[in-house]
C-alpha cells in the first residue's frame, strides 16, 4: 500500500537536485532560454529518444557514452534544435562542456538537450554566457521550466511525493515542454524527470517504457515526429526510499499528466479529447484506430467546429486498416450514443445532445468495434486557425 | 506511333455516350446535384474503389453484380454519401433504379455513385425527380461535371482524342470531383471515365491500375480516405479504334491531369507541389517518403507560409521509416540546393532564392536520398486557413 501526493512546483522537492534557468538572448523577447539540472551525486540515466532517423546532435552525443554511464549534469537550450548539423553539431556540444568545466569543475558525463529550429549551428558564445549567470545551488524549477518552452503557451511541471506504507517517502519531479509536432511514434517533446528514489536500474527501464507508451506515445497533436524528442529519467537515490509498484504508478501518473498538458497546449488547440477504443481484435489494433482518429485532419477540424459529424469518425476507423464491421460498431460521445447498427441516423435530439458534449473543453469519444477485447486510449486535440497561423510563421 | 490531342469538353466527344446533370434541390443553392452517364450499347466496366473497409452502399451494390458484368447506365448524386447506411442504403438504390426503369426501360445493370455526408439515408423522392428532368439524349458534360461537385471550387473534366498511326481514332473522356479528404491509400474522389476504344477487358484492368497508381494514389490533400472513392472506366467500343500503348498512355495522362486538378483544388490550397524522391533504397521507400512529405502538416503549413524551412522536410524524411542518411541526403527547391552534407546551413542568398521559388503557385521539392535507385513523385498542396474554415463547417 502507498499514497501518492502532488506537490506544488516540481524539481525543487527532489533531494539532491538543483536547477536554474537564465536568459542569454536566444529568445528575442528576453525570456529564459538556457537551463540546467544537476545532482549532488552521480545519477543513473534512463532515456527514450525520438524514432526519427535524423536524431539531433545532443542525442548522438548522449549515445557516445558507454552503457549504464552516470551523469551529474544536464544542460538544455531552446530556440535551436542542433539537428541536421552533422559532426560540427556534436563538436559544438563538446566545446560548450569544456568551457562549462572551467566554471563547474565537478562536471561528469554531462548531457545536453536542445529544442528549436533545425539546420543551424548553436550560438556557442551566447549559450556559454549562461555559465556565469547560473546559480548552481538554486532550486529554481520555475525558471528552468520556462527556459525550455518554445511554442508552449504555459510551462509544464509536476512533483509527486510517494509515501510507501511503513517505508521512506521519495519524490519524482519533472519539467516538460511540447505543444506542436506531437506525434504517434513518440510525442515530440522534451521531458526531464528526476527522482530521489533508490531506483534499481532494471526497474527504471521497465517503468519508463510502460509510462511513455501510455502517455507521450498516446498523445497526438499533428502526427509529425521531431528530430529531438527526449524523455530522460535521472535517479540519484538520495531519499533512500523505494517501492516498485508505487514508483511505477507514480511515474505513469506523472508522464500521463504532462502528456495531457502537452496535448491541451497543442498549437492552437481548444479541446482535449480522449479516443477510447474497446472491442478491437487486439490492443495493437485498438492503438492503430485510436491514433488514426487522434491524427485525422477531418476529425480534428470537426472537433474544432463542434460538429457531431460521426461519419468522419466511422470513415477514419474504416480507413485505419484494422478488422472492423459496421454492424458491430458503436460510437458514443461521452454517454451519448451517436451510432450503432440499429440507430444509424442521428435524430435531432441525439444530435443536440452530442453537440452539447462537443462544446466542453474535454470529453471522450468512445468507439467499441465489437470484435474482440483489445483496448487503447489515445489523446488528441482539435485543429483550428491558430495551428495554421503558428506553423505558417514558426521559425523559433 | 500515335498522337494524343486534348479536346475542349469531355464526355460529349466519346461515341455512343450521353450524359446530363439537373438540380432536384439536394444542394440548397439550386446547383445541379444529380447526373447520369449512359451508353447506347452495353459497356465493359473496370473499377477501382476505396480501401476504406466501410465501403458506401453504392460500392456494395456494384459488387453484387457478377464478375465481368456489363452496364449501360450510371446515376450519380451529390450531398449524400449513402455510407454507413447498412442494408437500407442498398435497398434505397434498388428502389431508385426500379423507379428509373419506368422512365428509361432500356436500363441494364445500372450503377450508382454517391458523394456527400455520411450517415443519412438518400432522399429518394428528390433524386427520383431527376428522372423526369433528365434529357436522356443530351451530351451535357458541363451539366454532369457540375452536378458531382461538392467542396470543389471548379469543375473537372477532360477529353483526349487518340490518333494511332494508320488506325482509327478513339476517345477517352472523364468527369471528376474531389477537393478534400485526398489521401495516400487512394485519393478520395469520384472519377468517371468513358471511352469508345475497342478496349480488351484484360488491357482495361492493367491500364487502369497503372494510371490510378501514378495519379490519384500519388495525390494527397489531407491523408484521410473516404468511404466512397471510386474510379470507373466504361468502354463501349463504338469507335472501333484501339492501340494498346496509346490507350495506356492516354489513360495515364488523363488521370494524372485530373488528379493534379484535384490537388490544386485541395480545400483552401494555394500551392501545388510535386515531391520528387530519387535515390531511395526501393521505389516503395521512395513512395513512402513522397507521401509522408505530401501529408505532413508541418510541411504543408510551411508551404502555405512560403517558408524555406527545409528542416521540416528533413525531419519528415527521417521520421518516415525508410533507409536514409543525412550525409547522402540532398534537398532542392526546383533547382535551388537548400541542403546537402557540405552545405548544411542555408546562407542568406540561397534562402532568398528558395523563398522566391516558394512564392510560385507550383514547384518541385526534390529529395535525393543518395541510397539506391528508387523513385516516386507525389503531389500535394499547402494547408491554409481556408482548409480549417471549410472543414470545421462542412456538412454537405
Automatic annotation (TrEMBL), chains A, B:
Gene Ontology molecular function: any one: L-glutamate N-acetyltransferase activity, acting on acetyl-L-ornithine as donor
Known pathway: Amino-acid biosynthesis; L-arginine biosynthesis; N(2)-acetyl-L-ornithine from L-glutamate: step 1/4; Amino-acid biosynthesis; L-arginine biosynthesis; L-ornithine and N-acetyl-L-glutamate from L-glutamate and N(2)-acetyl-L-ornithine (cyclic): step 1/1
Chief location bin: cytoplasm
Top-level taxon of origin: Bacteria
InterPro entries membership: Arg_biosynth_ArgJ (IPR002813), ArgJ-like_dom_sf (IPR016117), ArgJ_beta_C (IPR042195)
Residues given in the record as substrate binding sites: 150, 177, 188, 267, 391, 396
PANTHER family listed in its UniProt record: ARGININE BIOSYNTHESIS BIFUNCTIONAL PROTEIN ARGJ, ARGININE BIOSYNTHESIS BIFUNCTIONAL PROTEIN ARGJ, MITOCHONDRIAL
Protein name: Arginine biosynthesis bifunctional protein ArgJ
Organism: Sulfurospirillum tamanense
Gene coding for it: argJ
